[in-house]
Design goal:
The complex is a heterodimer of chains A (264) and B (332).
Chain A lengths: L1 E6 L1 E3 L19 E3 L1 H16 L4 E7 L4 H10 L4 E5 L9 H15 L5 E5 L10 H8 L4 E12 L2 E8 L2 E8 L2 E5 L11 H9 L3 E3 L1 H4 L13 E7 L8 E4 L6 H12 L4
Parallel strand pairs in A: 1-4, 1-6, 4-5, 5-11, 6-10, 7-10
Antiparallel strand pairs in A: 2-3, 7-8, 8-9
Helix pairs in contact in A: 2-5, 3-4
Chain B lengths: L4 E5 L9 H15 L6 E7 L4 H9 L5 E6 L8 H15 L3 E5 L2 H13 L4 E5 L1 E4 L5 E7 L4 E7 L4 E5 L16 E5 L10 E8 L2 H4 L1 H4 L2 E5 L6 H14 L2 E4 L1 H5 L20 E5 L5 H4 L7 E6 L6 H4 L2 E4 L2 H13 L3
The chains are: A alpha/beta (264), B alpha/beta (332).
Amino acid sequence: MKIALCVKQVPDTSDIKWTENNTMQREGVESILNPYDVYAVEAALKLKKAYDDAEITVFTMGPLQAESMLKDIIALGVDNGVLITDRKFAGADTFATGKTVSAAIKKILPDFDIILCGQFAIDGDTAQTGPCIASLLNIPQVTYVKKINEYSDGTITATRLLDDGIEAVKVKAPALLCILKSEFEPSRALINGIIKAQDTKITTLTLEDLGLNPEDVGIKGSPTYVSKAFRPEVKHTGEKHDCLETGTGAEIILNKIKEIGVLR
Amino acid sequence: MTGGILLYAEVTRQGYVHTVFFELANKARELSAKLNNAPVMAILFTKPDMLPDYKEGFTYSGIDKVFVFENEKFGEYNTETYSNLIINLVKEIQPEIFLIGATNQGRDLAPRISSTLETGLTADCIELDINEKGLLAATRPTFGGQLMATILCKTKPQMATVRPKVFKPSVDIGYKETEFIYKEVKPEDFKENVQLEKFMQVYENDLNELDSAEIIVAGGKGMKGEEGFKMLKELADLLGGTVGATRGAVDLGYAPHTMQIGQTGKTVTPKLYIACAISGAIQHTVGIMGAEHIICINNDPNAPIFDVSDTGIVGDVFEVVPKLIKMLKNKV
């Protein structure tokens, strides 16, 4: 079973500082593995544990520094790493990203059985790149996957968690699955994993390697573009009661609730 | 026959047109007015006997044309079947704008369509407008809601998804002649790579209450754990409300994902929102801006949540809430 695992390095959004003209202060902002991709990594590792022939190749598109993230993931038990990197890829929207990543998967792992992605990335939070890759590779997709239950005879069974309930689905491989958060103890790298990761050579793919047209990637290949970016305005409307000393917070709230008239 | 605004009319598992469609219809009419009254059209997948039930919804929300795909199998959504049929229709009618509700289904469907059509898609917009060049200006939060971006699209159709409850639903605008156009569905249009084996509806209280709740008591990381959320549940029960949580609290395992409110969770519109030990990161507050009244309790007087609250209590949530619970129990 060949698994393509797609991950993204994102700025830690809980830690962003903004300059006065609304540009992000990149210095000092840590880059992390997208938290939702952690679950995709975990789902891949689970499959590897359950199926002896499973081989995982992790793909990411990003700057050269993303190589260390790939090594960290390999240290957890992933087999190979592919870094898709080229200045010309910069500024890609979800479509251009999907085009580039799907081209890389086609080149490196054309006989893949399963592609795993995180359901969202915390920076853009579009949830689009996964379905976009599936669409461009013309394979079925299953989004909102809570759990992959089984893989046999080229069929994957999975559980989806949706707003109105839970679906059990079967999908024919090759297929792409977008993985949701789940309860688990995240894997930790073991010492021999770390040593193996150090020895694993990351495959680097540039625009030339992928044979894509420069017009089809990065900012040029993106149908969407940002025309304006601004910080949301917060308007202060409220009254503030300092109740740390007075201890009257509960009374004020109760009076307010009664005043609004929502109490049944 | 090209141009116009196309909307996806999602039909829920229960067989209703999803409310987000009527919200999109309302916005689409506004956009249409800025586009020389371009037609507003809808796509509907339905079982053959169901269409009469839906007709009024379209005629009274100002839809000019509905493209109907009719088949016995259309109670059940299938990504490939639906997207392929929609893609062919879009190629035929060439709309300027194509809007889809950002429900589970919409978020699954929209990128599949946009990438096959090689066009742009802007997810989870909070505002849609027509700019001076007649293009769709779609505004959405990024970076956890800390930055708003207005996005334009170079290609057609200009696609966008919008979450439920972001726009107001259309009120009855009076009867308008709607044309229903049946589109052919062939047996080979049905794809079976993905098959639904079983659906288990989750107990409504666990999932859907946030959508309809008049009172929401929500907690952040400062609730310190599941115990803290039990206390919020007790308060919510006494008030006849339900419990919500921030992403921070969900990530720490204090509350389930289904309770999450904010950019990566739900958008809520209760009459009263009580934010307990929530700092007020914008990624959370974008999801509560539709609340009529926000009360917050936080021991940090500088927490940003105070800036969006109507009533702010600087205090320790572990003192204020138990006292409030006690007062409610004693019917003070």
